[in-house]
Amino acid sequence: MWDTLEVTHEGTNDVKSARKHALIQEYEMFRMQKGETIVEVQKRFTHIVNHLMSLGKIFEKGGTQHQNHQNHQVPRQILAAQDYDHL
Question: What's the predicted TM-score (pTM) here?
Answer without folding.
Answer: 0.63
